Amino acid sequence: MPDSPAATDPSAIGPLELVEFPHPALRRPAKPLLRLDDAIREAVSRMFEIMYEAEGIGLAANQVALPYRIFVVNCTGRQGLGEEHVFINPVLSRPRGTAVQEEGCLSLPGVRMDVRRPERIVVEAWSLAGEPIKLDLDGLFARVVQHEFDHLEGRLFPDRLPEAAALEVRHQLEGLAQVFAGKQSRGELPTDATLVAELDRLEAARCRA
Asked: Rounded distance, CA 170 to CA 90, Å?
């Protein structure tokens, strides 16, 4: 059996894949990234691949079980089309207006509901090249950025639903939780304790001075 990434390099990032609810990474607030390295650059490249494979338009690091404040966006959802954006340690400000639009989530397969969010926001972050970013966004781009930012806070879009709508999706979330628990019981997924330990290791490697 091959060694785990941590066995040879305590900062190594292993193979990435999309995780689904209720993986503990999805409820864990991500920590600011203090250093960029080749492993992070490779991880970001893989995040785009995973996003395109799943036909998404945004993906947060939590969704591939990385505890870092990073998300990627391409509003076309098509590789080679549109513009790819990487946001590292983002901060949102100046929410304006209100808009309601249906949202889904790659980590909540089959769950879709109308979500109310600010129509415009300002995002400040760092690029993968270490350059500052400041964008005043509206429309779909603003919504995707807010959705992915929520992930970094450990928040999922059903958390933003009014009570009646939240009750409507509760059984779907319970179904996803049962599937996840079943995979763990059969040994197809690690235990929560093992998953959390891996998040702790990765966080210690790049989020602590």
From this structure: 30
**Pairing verdict, β 132-138 and 120-126:** antiparallel
Q: Of 9-18, 100-109, 114-123, 174-183, which range is least confident?
A: 9-18
Query: The pTM is what?
Result: 0.94
User: What's the confidence (pLDDT) of residue 150?
Assistant: 98
Predicted pLDDT of residue 48:
98
Joined tokens for residue 146:
């807010």
Domain membership of residue 203 (yes or no) is no
Question: HSE on the CB side for 15, CA within 13 Å?
Answer: 4
User: Please, what is the end-to-end C-alpha distance for the chain in angstroms?
Assistant: 33
Kindly write down the DSSP assignment for every residue of 51-85, as one continuous string: HHHTT-SEEEGGGGT--BSEEEE-TT-STTSS--E
Structural domain boundaries enclosing 81:
5-195
| Residue 200 counted as domain residue | no
Residues with active-site annotation: 148
Q: Would you place residue 4 in the very low, low, confident or very high pLDDT band (cuts 50, 70, 90)?
A: low
pLDDT of 2 above 50 = no
Q: How many domains does the chain have?
A: 1
Coil, helix or strand for 132?
Answer: strand
Q: Is residue 162 part of a domain?
A: yes
User: What percent of the chain has a predicted confidence (pLDDT) above 90?
Assistant: 90
What's the CATH number where 158 sits? 3.90.45.10
